[in-house]
Amino acid sequence: MLILADENFPLPTVEAMRADGHDVLWVRTDCPSRADSALLERAEAEARLVLTLDKGFWQIALQRREPLERSGVILFRVHPAAPDNVTPVALHALSAEREWRGHVSVVSEEGIQMISARRRWTQ
Fold first, then answer.
1. Which CATH number does the domain housing residue 80 bear?
2. Residue 31: in which H helix or E strand, if any?
């Protein structure tokens, strides 16, 4: 899976996803100092899923003028957001048979909630 992990995602989690066979760009090293909106544009252009611990990405995706089609945003709500807690939840979510693209999702230890980010009406 093509992934863009936000800079707040723990490095051990990024490494575990790579070891699991995912193509992961990590914002902290691969595209530092980029605005969230620019990162979301890159994810959409490259059909990458954005993984984040930051509600800001989630809100940007929902308020975006053009709906997400090729990418999606997954907000992980794991407390505390330490690698030992985030890594198993992230790996489990990515192994789930879900259509993440075109959705903004919230993943926690309790489960997965998905909201379509695609346009619900035509103008």
1. 3.40.50
2. none
